[in-house]
Structure formats: structure tokens, C-alpha cells
Amino acid sequence: METRIGLDSLVFGLDIGTRNVVGVVGCVENDIFKVVAMSEREHESRSMLDGQIHDIYKVGEKILEVKNDLEAQLDTKLKDVCIAAAGRVLKTINTKGIMEFDEETRITKDHVFSMELQAIENAHKKVNEEDAEAKFFCVGHSAVRYLLNGFEISNLEGHKAKKIEVDLIATFLPEEVVDSLYMAVEHADLKVASLTLEPIAAINIAVPENFRLLNLGLVDVGAGTSDICLTKDGSIIAFGMIPVAGDEITEAIARHYLVDFKTAEQIKMIASSKPKGQVKFKDVMGIEQKINVSDINKVASEPIGEMAKETASRIKELNGGKSCNAVFVVGGGGKMSGYTQTLAKELGLPKERVAVRGADVLESVDFSAVSFQKDSLYVTPIGICTNFYNQKNNFVFVSVNESRVKLYDNNHLTISDALVQIGYSNSDVFPKRGKALSFSINGVQRQVKGKSGEGAIIKLNGKPANLNSKIGQNAKIEIKNSTAGEDANLTLNKLEELSSPVKLTLNGELLELPKIVYVNGETKPEDYDILEGDHLRVENYYTVKQLCDCLGMKALDNEIFVNGEEANPITKIYSGDSITASSYIKSNENASNPDNKYLTLTNGLEVENYEEDIEELEKAKERGRKKAMLEEEKKLKEEAKKSIDLKNIDESSIGKMSASFTKKNKISNDKFMNEIIKSNTFSENIAKPGNQEELAQVAADVVVVEKKSEIPNKITKGITIFVNNEPVKLSGKSDYILVDLFQFYEFDLSKPKGVVVLKQNGNKGEYTAPLKEGDKIDLYWEDITQ
Q1: Where residue 398 falls among pLDDT bands split at 50, 70, 90?
Q2: pTM of the complete model
Q3: Which fold has domain 85-392?
Q4: Which of 381-390, 568-577, 652-661 bottoms out in mean pLDDT, i.e. has the lowest?
Q5: Alpha-carbon torsion 129, 130, 132, 137, what sign?
Q6: How far apart, in whole angstroms, are the C-alpha atoms of residue 185 and residue 192?
Q7: Taking a C-beta distance cutoff of 8 angstroms, is the pair 248, 181 a contact?
Q8: Could you give the residue ranges of the DSSP H alpha helices within 104-222?
Q9: 131 or 317: whose pLDDT is higher?
Q10: Three-point CA angle 722, 723, 727, nearest 5°
Q11: Long-range contacts of 726-732 (CB under 8 A, 24+ apart)
Q12: In which order are the strands placed within the sheet that holds 395-400?
């Protein structure tokens, strides 16, 4: 049959020491621990040093030997084992736990253990902060005192309180020390049911609770370490350890008598077991030696003195700088003659206050079923077994991704409890979203969430599980982090704002046009991927110019009305508007764009882009100037022959007009040129431009002249007008029209910035309109692209 560990079943305790491995199996009956099987094996090599496992598999083999021997004695299989740790890097933390309630509450065991667990977590955090490079594992803890509403009390359970507190001492070892113990045990096909600290296990046997009111010390002298535990006022107040113990004595004997370590260990054990007589052995030379026990004790006195001195120093350090009232010594290393006397001297205590405890402290242990005798050597393994009963229903050990976790057992533990205990991040449990996409539309911030990933994959003992799956002792939890989904992405054509088109009627025909969208001030194609931080502007209208560009119309070839009112290139057209165009013909794409290089697709909208070739433009302007000057000179000579008055010819006007006709500003300059052509500024023999391509050439061919006055003796006069609120004086003529102001007011037409706006006294200006004294003129560029 298989043995199950419980209150009414067998308990398997294992003391994995530096020198040997001791296994004890027993159970409690009527407050007596009955040993039903025992086994002991000595390490054949130094696979452990100072309480630390150096060769996991060799130690594991010794554990397996002990296990097999015990199973043979019991005729049963052993699965679970209780162990204790003793390490070189022991850390003890004094900590505090507090629990407060909104109202007077009856205190239960759950309250007490939850508070203690909180204190342990605080200590764990503190020890990891002190040594960030190492990962520490709590191997034992003990409550020093309890407080009920601020008053000290021995037992909190059953009382009513609004606040309870615990002062607690927790002991930690590096993770690698604990891990090596677990690995060695698992090598023997065993699972750890309980883990404690060796001095805690020893004190449970050597110092009963009714003795703990006194300031007592317990020293467990093993082979590699001397573990220390102190009590006071009914509680364990401190743990400690020094890496000096029985092996130092063995090594001194080996050096002095020229024997190997194993022979020296046998010499030490014989000398410690009898006060007189001789010990026979052979040295490394093969010479047989007979040495008196008293001589061996003299050789051992030096390491014993050093060991006692360090132990006393550590006890005083743990006890607030002073000695304790008495010290109990257990373990094989403390049985050497002279150790207790030397320790008493170092502590300043009477020699009878420091004593080895053995058979007298094992009164509540029944060895009758085994051949072993009561001895201080077995205090620790027996204590490991009885410690299991103290921990039963209090704490369980589970593993999370191979990391061991100690949990308070409230009989309804779940996987989520284990994850909380190890600080597993919630973000690694629940599905993660991909990175969100943030941008703005018309000044309003918007965010698109990323896609959701997959939740964590959880297994319990190799089978699929969830956060609410119940767990017990030695549960094996595996969890694979949740994953993040894809980052958010969005193209322009998926925007809700662009889902509805601009609907209008043109000459009775219903048109649906996509809305125009600008990204960071620039138009983008409809499949453009919106980027983090983009600023989008969606227009719910078209300007007349944009509509004409879209439909392949020329605005100046049409008389365009919007909702019955005359429109200009920057008039805005909204959904529901009605447009009338005098000559709307739907253009054939190939006919209007034979080279297919002036069209781009912007959110489904075809927009004509005029090439901007600055170099060619400058060459054209220069050619225009030269030709104009030659033509002007020729015409001046002809006019001179005809006695025509040419004194008002303005060469600068010619240059300005020729430079103003650029491809970039065709609409505004077309209109300006048409108005100029209609005015008297042009010579009658100059032909009007027939198409857009002739404009630049016409500008170069223009000669500005004034018709000969039909009234020969008409008197010239000057007038003052206000252009953009600045006074401008016109002179040299008897009458003036609006276009004349360009001869006296600097307005650079060579660098077009949109459409020229010209107003006279607040009304739309006509270039041939007469000018009068004091007229107010507004002249500026208006940007039609916005």
C-alpha cells in the first residue's frame, strides 16, 4: 500500500546532514511520537560542505538508499518527505504584520495566518531589497508576540478586536540552497511535504514551549554548521548560523595524526563517546597508532575553542549584545569533550548552564520499535517529523513554472492564490491588446484600440486548468504568458467621416463625390495607413475650383452659379447644393490628359496638378521680356511716324505682366489678363489670346499704350487714392481707370499667391472702372487652396 501523510498516518522525516543522512518514519499517538522505522547512511565522499549540497546526485543516491531501507522495513512505499535546511547564508528578518477591521471582529485562525503571511511577505521583500542579486526563499518563521488592540496576548483566536498585530521572525536561505535540497529529494523519487529550518526542528524537541518563557539558547552542532536558536517570553526571537562545526575538529585530528578524513572522523566519534581509554588506527604510512583519548581531546581543544568563541559571539549578537540565561547543545559535533565548558566560559555562564541534551529531551519519543537508542544525534530528524504536525493545514508547497511557493492552506486554495503569492503580473495572465493608434480628426482626439491577444495557457499537474482550479500540496503549476494582439491600424477609406459622400446636383445631374481629407496638411491616397500622432482634416465641401478640377472643367470657361448665386473659384459647395455651369461637359480622361501624367488619385478624387518647372518658367519670362522690348521699340518708331503720343508707355508694367503668367496661377492670371484685354490699356492691334497655352506668349507680346487723346489740349491732373489704407498719388493723365493704379502702387504679380482680389470702395472692382479722388481700394491675394 501507499503511505499518505496526515494526522493519523505515518510521517517521513529526513535529516540531510553534512556527514550523514538520517531517515525517520513515525506517527503521533497520545502525544507520543512513535518511531516505527529508522535508517542512517554516511556520505562516502564530501558531497556536502557546511550544510550545502555540492553533489546533488551523490546526495540523492544516499537519500534513495535510506528510502529503500525504510520501505523494506515498512513494506510500503514512501512518496512524501519532510526536510530541513541549514545553510551558510542564513538571513533572519524581524518583521511585523497588521490587520485592521472596520468593526469589532471575532478573530479566527484564518485571520491570524493571513496576518502572518503578510508579515512573511514583508520580510521577503526586505531581504530581496538588501541583496538584489540573490533570490531568497523563506524556510522558517516564528511569531515572537501577538497584540490585540495594542495589548500583548499569547493567543488571538476567539477574541474580538478591531486591530491585531504580530511581531514575527522569518528565516531565509538563497534559492539555490533550497533548490539543491529539492533536487536531491526528487532524485530519490520523493516529494517535499514540509520544509523547515534545522534549529526550528531541533528546538521543537529540545526546548518545549513551557520553557520558552526563559531567555534560552539552542545550538545544533552538526558537521558543517552550528545552527543557533534563541527563545524569550514564550517565543522564538532569533535564528542564526556559523559555518564552523564538527568538521573543523575532524580536520585538526587528520592533520595532526596523518590520517584521511574518514579515519579522523572515526577517531573523533570514539573519543567523544568515552572519557578514557585509547583509540587504535593506522596512519597514511600504514603504521598502527594507539592514542589516549585525553591526547586526542588536547588536539581537538584548539578548533573547539575557536568554534565555542564564534558561537558565543553569534549568540550575543542575536540576543541584543548579551548572553542568554542557559544554552542547550544537540548534535554530534557538540559531544566532544570540553566544548560545553568552553562555550560557557565564552558566554560568562556557569558551566552547568551549558549542557548537551539527548535522551532527556526525547522523553516524548518512543524508540521501542527500532534498534536505535535515544541520542542527541536524532533530535533534529525527530523534530523534522513533529514539525510537520505543527505545519499541517497551515502551509502547503506548490511549484509555479518550477519556482517553489509556500502558501497558507485555507482549504480552498486556487491557482490564482499561487500566482498572487509570487507576484505574477495580471497583464501576463489576461489577453493583451496590441498598441493603440492615436490621431486627431478636425481637432478632436481619437484612439483605435489594438486587437486582443490570447489569454495565458495554464496547466495543473500536466492537465489544462484555469485560475479557479483548486490546488493542494506539491501541485505543479505551469503557466505560459498571455500574448498581445496586433497593433491597431486604420486606412483613410475606413474612416466613418468619409463613409458619406458630398452629394450635389450639377445642371440637374446628381453627383456623389468623396470627401477631401488632409493628413498633416497634405492630401493622401485612400489606402494611406494612418500613423500615430497624425492630424487629419476632413472637408465636407468642395470649392468651385476643386469641383472644376475634379470634373475636368475650366472655371473661366463657365458661368457658374451655386444655389442661384454667381460663384467664384473659392465659393464653397456643400451636400445638397445645386450648381449650374454654362458649359459643363464631362471630360474624357484620355482626351483631357493625353500624357496621363497630370492626374493623381486623392481619396478617390482626381485632381489636376500643374507642373512647376521653375527653370523653364524663368526662360520663358526672359524670352517674353526681350521680345516685348523689341516689339515695343518697333511700335514706338511706327507710332512716332504717326505722331501717336507714347509718353505713358510703362516698361515695368510689361515686365510685370509677362512674369505674372505662370502655370501655377493660371486661373487668377487668366481672369486678370481677360480683364486687361477688355480695357483700353491694350493696343487695338494686339490679338486677344485664344487659349490657355497662348497666355505666356501674349504677356510677352503686350505693349501698353494709351490711345491718342481725341481732345488735343486736355489738361492733365493728379489725384490721390487710398490702396490698402495707404495714400497713392496718380499723375500724368486727365482721367484714370482702376488698372492705372498698378503704375503707381507696387504689387508684385510675378510671384502669384492665389487669386487677385480687387475692390473699389468696398465693391467688386472692374479694371476699366473710373477712379476718383479719395477712392478706397483693397488689393490682395486670396489663397483658394484652403
Answers
A1: confident
A2: 0.48
A3: Nucleotidyltransferase; domain 5 (3.30.420)
A4: 652-661
A5: negative
A6: 7
A7: no
A8: 109-130, 175-187, 198-206
A9: 317
A10: 40
A11: 730/771, 732/647, 732/648
A12: 403-408, 395-400, 476-480, 457-460, 463-464
Contacts 24+ apart (CB under 8 A), 407-413: 408/113, 408/114, 408/116, 408/117, 409/473, 410/110, 410/113, 412/470, 413/470, 413/471, 413/472
- Describe the strand order of the beta sheet including 717-723 as a list of residue ranges: 726-733, 717-723, 776-782, 755-760, 763-764
**C-beta neighbour count of 706 within 10 angstroms:** 18
Residue 593 phi/psi, 5-degree rounding, is: -140, 70
Q: Is the model's pLDDT at 468 over the cut of 80?
A: yes
User: Where in the chain are the domains?
Assistant: 85-392, 404-480, 492-608, 614-782
Distance CA 655, CA 778 (A): 23
Q: Which of 4-8, 414-418, 475-479, 618-622 has the highest mean pLDDT?
A: 475-479
The residue ranking higher by pLDDT, 133 or 155, is: 155
Query: For the CA atoms of 9, 10, 11, 17, what is the dihedral angle to 10 degrees?
Result: 180
CA-CA distance, 588 to 706, in Å (whole number)? 44
Task: Evaluate whether 29 touches 369 at the Cβ level (below 8 Å).
Answer: no
Grid cell 501698353 in the structure block, residue: 704
> What does the alpha-carbon distance between residue 302 and residue 253 come to, in Å, rounded to a whole number?
11
What pLDDT, on the 0 to 100 scale, is given for residue 65? 94
Residue 644 confidence (pLDDT): 35
pLDDT score recorded for residue 696:
36
Per the DSSP assignment, residues forming a β-bridge with 441 are 444, 536
